[in-house]
Amino acid sequence: MQAMELPGKSTRGIMPEFVATYDLEETAPSPHTEFKRIASDHDWHGMVIDSRDSSMKFLPNSTVSLTADTMRAAVSSFGVLVSDAKRNIPNFHIERVTIVGGGEVCAFHDGDPIRY
């Protein structure tokens, strides 16, 4: 999986915010609440700081954010999060993940290992 560079200003020297959006397979009970709890344990949160006014804003459902040095660090952290979720949530299955930040995009689909 190769990262794609996005056009725009360089983020070198600034610790970027990474946003991950994901689809979880629906099971009973729903895995979403427990996944968000585990995500929080790994420093992935359902809020971001709005750069226009520095206020905290909630992200849409199935979206979390992380402040990290690099895309490699963000992808690694999300991979550990998914491994932890698989150990702790019965029948857990993640279908798709897209991580955006630091001028890069990484996308993973069903069965792809989540690694940089």
Set out the fold topology:
Layout: E1 4-5, E2 17-24, H1 32-41, E3 47-49, E4 56-58, E5 63-67, H2 71-88, E6 94-101, E7 104-109
Antiparallel strand pairs: 1-7, 2-5, 2-6, 3-4, 6-7
Helix pairs in contact: 1-2
Distance between the termini: 6 Å
Our Rg estimate from Cα atoms comes to 14 Å
Number of domains: 1
By CATH, the topology is: Alpha-Beta Plaits
What's the count of strands? 7
Share in β-strands: 25-35%
Q: Oligomer, anyone?
A: single chain
Spatial sequence of strands, sheet with the most strands:
1-7-6-2-5
Category by helix and strand content: alpha+beta
* Poorly predicted residue ranges: 1-13
Number of helices: 2
Class, according to the CATH hierarchy? Alpha Beta
Order of helices and strands: EEHEEEHEE
Level of helix content?
A: 10-25%
In this structure, how is the largest beta sheet organized?
5 strands, antiparallel
Shape from CA axes? globular
Structure description:
The protein is of the alpha+beta class. It has a single domain, classed as Alpha-Beta Plaits. It contains 2 helices and 7 strands, in the order E-E-H-E-E-E-H-E-E. The chain has a 5-stranded antiparallel sheet with strand order 1-7-6-2-5, covered by helices on one side. A hairpin with a 6-residue loop joins strand 3 and strand 4.
